[in-house]
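Please review this one.

:::
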Amino acid sequence: MTNNTAHIINQQDTKGRIIESARDIYLSEGLPSLSMRKVAKHAGLSTMAAYRHFDNKDDLISHVIMEGFKIFQHYFYKALEGNTPAERLKLSSESYYLFAMENPKYYEVMFMSVAHITDTPTNAQVQSLVQASVQFLYDRIAECAQAGLLDGPVSKRQVLHLWAHSHGLISLYLSGHIDGHTSFKNLYQESMAMMLKGMGFTHSALT
C-alpha cells in the first residue's frame, strides 16, 4: 500500500466517523443541538478536521442522509437478482425491510425525522437519490404489469401506497409499538401480500 493510498483510506475513515457521529447526535439531541464542534468531539477529532470535510452542519446532515440512501440503494438493487418480475418486486419489499432492520439509525434519520436543511449541492444529490429509489420501485411494478400480473394501469400513486404501507409498519416496530422480531417479519410479509392483492396483483404474483 502506497502512502497516498493509505492517506485516502484514512481520510475516508475520518469522514465516516464524522458522519456517524452527526447521525447519532442528531437522533439523540435533535438538529438544534447539533454543531460541528460537538460532532468533532464525539468523533474524537478537532473541529478543524470536521470543517476539512464539510462546509457546515447543513452540509454534514445532507451527507448523513445521502450516506443512508447509498446504503439503502445497495439493498434495493439486490432485488434485480430475481429471475422474474414478481420475484424482483417481492425482493424489493424484502430489501426495504432488511435495510430498516439492519440499519435502524439511518432509517430513522431518512424516514422518521425531519431535518430542516437549507438548499445545498449535497441536498440536491439527496433528492436525486430519493427520486431514483421511487423510480426503481415504479419500474418493478411496471414490469409486473407488462407480464400480466397486475390488473389496471400503473401509476406513481401505487409506489406511494406501497411505500407508505411499508414505512408505517416498520416505523411502528422501530418505535416499539410492535413487539417480537420474528412475529413482526411474518406480519410484514403477510401485510405486504394483502396490500399487493388489494392493488390488483394476481395470485401468481403473490406466491
Observations:
- Confidence is low (pLDDT under 50) at residues 3-9.
